[in-house]
Write a structure and sequence with these properties.
The protein is an alpha/beta fold. It has 17 helices and 13 strands. The strands form three sheets. Strands 1, 2, 3, 6, 7 and 8 form a six-stranded parallel β-sheet that branches. The protein is globular. The termini are far apart. Residues about 450-460 have low confidence and may be disordered.
């Protein structure tokens, strides 16, 4: 596949984000011999002849750049505007994605902006990646980058040929109907999704929340320590039905003030009895909905941000959040999820997950006597560790020292590439999917450490 990489970083060849591209080029072009990378400087914000030539001949476009103040760099924004306003004819229908290496909460806003630009200007947007730069040097980070690109380029190929992908193995897909009453357009979309997934080789199941008896969470906090809810209703059985042995979940519903309504929210709130630590489900998820009479684009943006937060915490891969337009569109979105499944896509370790987790980790530390399982979880994944200082980073006095500092920061990446002998090892996904999440969370309720003794508080009576 011919891949055009527009290097939009202000650091040009000293860019850390560019190093991720060089890793991909090393794996997919030099070692696997599958793709041809054409890396073009694109920092000026202008559409040069080289950019035009590269974009015209490309089967897939990657924009590689930095995130400044929660947005793409201003020069990259200018380039995007020039491409869409003056060269729409050469970018229309081209598969495109964006990669950055901040891996921080603010990247979400920049990537959402890029997605909006791509979709509004006729490009075929493919889920982008924010990966913290140092992660690339670790086996897990390299694996995430490798699998993400496999997903991205396979999706680009799909957009170019539209052939239905077949599942690599017989996985399980759950279609969750969250509507409070039956809606014909939603029911039709669910049927279309079921048919497509089954034709691709998946086992599918439909769960209808309105048929379940699920009480509202009362906020009694009885479950905070032992993770056992006071209610004995359909929640636990429905949760197990949703997650046990499941690889992908598609939520269907009606969007109402930035959420999928009461059935969905009631079910979601009862997740509190699992603790605040995230359930590490690694499920691939999408959310498809119709708008109610008061909903608009603001509701969609708000809901998408909520999904990114929740699924980031739970280590899911969020495929799509979008309005139901037609059954043909649903079929295409299901195919994207199948490609993600086949690609062994990993949860996005950047984006909102780190920010959300740090917030929950701070709460867990303050209430560790009540929720030792949560505290132990966050401690186990390093939330309370002091980050080590990078030996290649030092005090900068002027522009020349800044340039040398950038060069020094690239040393471990260049050394790693120089001594690279193969491609990343892809590990097993969803290896715990046959184990009950509820039982696992209950077993972890007391944590790995002995519970700190409660401090005797004076009576308020």
């Amino acid at each position: 596949m011919k891949i055009c990489v527009l290097n939009c970083s202000p650091k040009n060849n000293l860019s850390l984000t560019l190093q991720t591209i060089l890793y991909l080029q090393n794996w997919y072009q030099e070692k696997l011999g599958e793709d041809e990378f054409n890396i073009v400087p694109a920092f000026s914000g202008k559409v040069t002849d080289k950019i035009i030539e590269a974009v015209k001949s490309a089967e897939f476009i990657i924009m590689s750049g930095a995130v400044f103040h929660f947005d793409v760099h201003s020069s990259m924004g200018e380039l995007m505007d020039r491409l869409s306003e003056d060269h729409y004819d050469i970018i229309k229908d081209k598969p495109v994605t964006f990669i950055s290496t901040s891996g921080l909460i603010g990247d979400t806003l920049a990537h959402n902006r890029f997605e909006l630009w791509a979709k509004k200007n006729g490009l075929k947007y493919i889920n982008s990646l924010s990966l913290e730069s140092a992660e690339i040097l670790s086996p897990v980070g390299s694996e995430e980058l490798f699998c993400w690109f496999r997903f991205a380029k396979t999706t680009a190929e799909y957009y170019n040929n539209k052939n239905m992908p077949s599942a690599k193995s017989c996985g399980r897909v759950v279609l969750l109907d969250t509507c409070e009453t039956e809606i014909e357009k939603v029911s039709s979309a669910i049927k279309a999704a079921k048919k497509r997934f089954e034709n691709s080789g998946f086992d599918t199941e439909i769960i209808t929340l309105r048929d379940k008896t699920i009480h509202h969470c009362t906020g009694c906090q009885s479950c905070f320590s032992n993770r056992t809810c006071i209610f004995s209703d359909d929640w636990e059985k429905t949760f197990e039905q949703l997650y046990l042995n499941t690889d992908m979940i598609v939520y269907f519903g009606k969007l109402h003030y930035g959420t999928l309504g009461s059935c969905y929210k009631t079910f979601l709130e009862r997740h509190a009895c699992l603790g605040r630590s995230g359930i590490e489900d690694e499920v691939i998820k999408s959310y498809f909905f119709v708008l109610d009479e008061k909903a608009d684009k603001d509701d969609i943006a708000s809901f998408k941000f909520n999904c990114q937060s929740f699924d980031g915490l739970n280590c899911s891969f969020l495929s799509d959040v979008c309005e139901i337009e037609s059954n043909e569109q649903i079929t295409e979105l299901c195919d994207k999820m199948t490609i993600a499944y086949n690609s062994d896509i990993m949860p996005q370790n950047g984006f909102l997950k780190n920010g959300v987790r740090n917030g929950f980790a701070n709460v867990a530390a303050r209430v560790r006597n009540r929720c030792p399982g949560d505290y132990s979880y966050f401690k186990g994944i390093g939330c309370y560790d002091t980050p080590q200082s990078n030996p290649y980073v030092g005090w900068i006095e002027n522009a020349e020292e800044a340039r040398k500092d950038c060069e020094n920061r690239l040393i471990p990446y260049k050394m790693s590439l120089l001594h690279s002998k193969g491609i990343p090892v892809v590990t097993e996904r969803r290896k715990n999917k046959s184990i009950s999440v509820i039982e696992r969370q209950k077993a972890a309720a007391r944590g790995a450490e002995e519970t700190v003794q409660f401090i005797n508080m004076p009576s308020m009576c």
